[in-house]
Design brief:
The protein has 304 residues and is of the alpha+beta class. It has a single domain, classed as Clavaminate synthase-like (Double-stranded beta-helix, 4-Layer Sandwich), CATH 3.60.130.10. It is 19% helix and 24% strand. It contains 6 helices and 16 strands. The chain has a 6-stranded mixed β-sheet with strand order 1-2-14-6-16-3, covered by helices on one side. It has a 3-stranded antiparallel β-sheet with strand order 13-7-15. A 3-stranded antiparallel β-sheet has the order 9-8-12, with no helix packed on it. It is globular. The two termini are 37 Å apart. About 8% of the residues have low confidence. Bound molecules: fe (ii) ion. The site of fe (ii) ion (FE2) has 3 residues, from loops.
């Protein structure tokens, strides 16, 4: 079992009274599971408020209640793969990501309170990937390359307006009718990221569609495998995708898997972790409240 993510059996009163300790635990472990807490959504927001540490001086919450990820499944299919016996497909688990990496200020913390979990044993688990450990394990030549002036482009292409693919700095929000989750154009981030509290370094990797920033020609984003003359990016991408993202091994030092039970509240750091979840459950059988907290402009070194 990986060393990151801690599991606690605490009451609401204990969390409120000892919130400084839990806030530090959250930074240290990057995630906390509060077993069987069953918070009301106002209590979930309050816990996020108490446990958040970071650079956002006016932090706000982002909330989704009674969510079952239906939005990710168009009808009863995922990317053309139909549900079998009404169950969400196994392929769901390959959608590793961090939340809103394409935003100029992505959310700092995220949390899920699993309110209903009527799911077959071993299905519907959530995986976390430690981007600090990933950095730590990289060979020196890749670390050196990342130290350079390297930026990543976190746009996924899941938006409908090709004209939005520029880098004017206007952060044009695209047509909200498409399945792009408020994706904004022109949001490049430095490849390395410093955690504002622990000061530890992570690789700001956000999924398989992430590319090197194409400052030469911002209207034509690179494809992950099509980045010209950069063997280092390809090497990094292959380490991440083949050695970590596809491993699904709970003993891998970069990976953690959560077997959910109803009532669990799982809070994790969206600044240094990626996540994904498994299929194998019916829409409506896995329902959670989600609360994000704090939004920060990523940086490496010191904030400017
Ligand atoms: Fe997510």
């Amino acid at each position: 079992m990986s060393a990151f993510i801690t599991e606690e059996t605490s009451s609401l009163e204990e969390i409120y009274e000892d919130s400084v300790r839990y806030a530090d635990l959250l930074v240290e472990h990057k995630g906390i599971v509060f077993k069987d807490l069953s918070p009301h959504f106002m209590e979930q927001i309050r816990i996020m408020e108490l446990l958040y540490q970071g650079d956002d001086t006016n932090p706000r919450e982002g909330t989704i209640f009674d969510e079952d990820h239906r939005i990710l499944y168009k009808g009863n299919e995922l990317n053309g793969i139909p549900f079998v016996d009404g169950m969400t497909p196994e392929g769901s688990k390959h959608n590793w990501h961090s939340d809103f990496p394409f935003s100029p200020e992505p959310p700092s913390l995220t949390s899920m309170h699993m309110k209903k979990f009527d799911v077959p044993k071993g299905a519907g688990r959530t995986w976390l990937l430690d981007l600090e450990m990933f950095y730590h394990l990289l060979p020196d030549d890749l670390k050196e390359w990342l130290e350079g002036d390297i930026y990543f482009d976190h746009r996924t292409g899941n938006y409908s307006d090709p004209a939005g693919r520029d880098n004017t700095g206007n952060h044009k929000t695209n047509d909200p009718t498409g399945n792009h989750f408020g994706e904004e154009a022109g949001s490049y981030h430095r490849a390395l990221r410093t955690h504002p509290v622990s000061k530890r370094t992570s690789v700001f990797f956000s999924g398989i569609s992430m590319t090197l920033a194409n400052f030469e020609n911002p209207n034509i984003p690179y494809t992950p495998q099509g980045t010209p003359d950069d063997s280092q990016f390809k090497k990094l991408w292959e380490f991440m995708v083949y050695d970590v993202m596809k491993a699904f091994d709970p003993d891998h030092p970069c990976l953690y898997v959560r077997e959910w039970e109803e009532g669990d509240l799982f809070i994790w750091d969206n600044r240094n972790l990626m996540h994904t979840f498994e299929g194998g459950w019916a829409l409506g059988s896995r329902i959670f409240d989600k609360v994000e907290y704090g939004h920060e402009k990523p940086y490496y070194g010191s904030p400017n």
